[in-house]
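Translate structure to sequence.
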């Protein structure tokens, strides 16, 4: 099992409570529908230091690391990243771990 941790720093106009909630809700609507995704968890910063660095944390579970290319290029995921996150995200970092 692979867990992909994605940290999002939103653009200032999206980094308030309403903006975070909108991105979080949309992410939870789209990501579970990508065929390679087995589970999704989202989180908001729990303390001031975290909030200064990141706005949203996504944890996406895939069966195998070999599923990552298909996940990344799936049309639903590609549209989400390019057309939804793209205009809202200032910085994005992602890491993959075997669990």
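Result:
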């Amino acid at each position: 099992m692979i867990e992909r941790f994605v940290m999002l720093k939103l653009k200032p106009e999206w980094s308030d409570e309403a903006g975070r909630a909108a991105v979080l809700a949309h992410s939870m609507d789209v990501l579970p529908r990508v065929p390679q995704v087995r589970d999704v968890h989202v989180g908001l910063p729990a303390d001031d230091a975290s909030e200064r660095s990141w706005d949203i944390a996504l944890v996406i579970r895939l069966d195998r690391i070999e599923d990552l290319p298909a996940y990344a290029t799936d049309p639903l995921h590609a549209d989400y990243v390019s057309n939804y996150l793209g205009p809202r995200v200032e910085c994005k970092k992602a890491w993959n771990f075997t669990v």
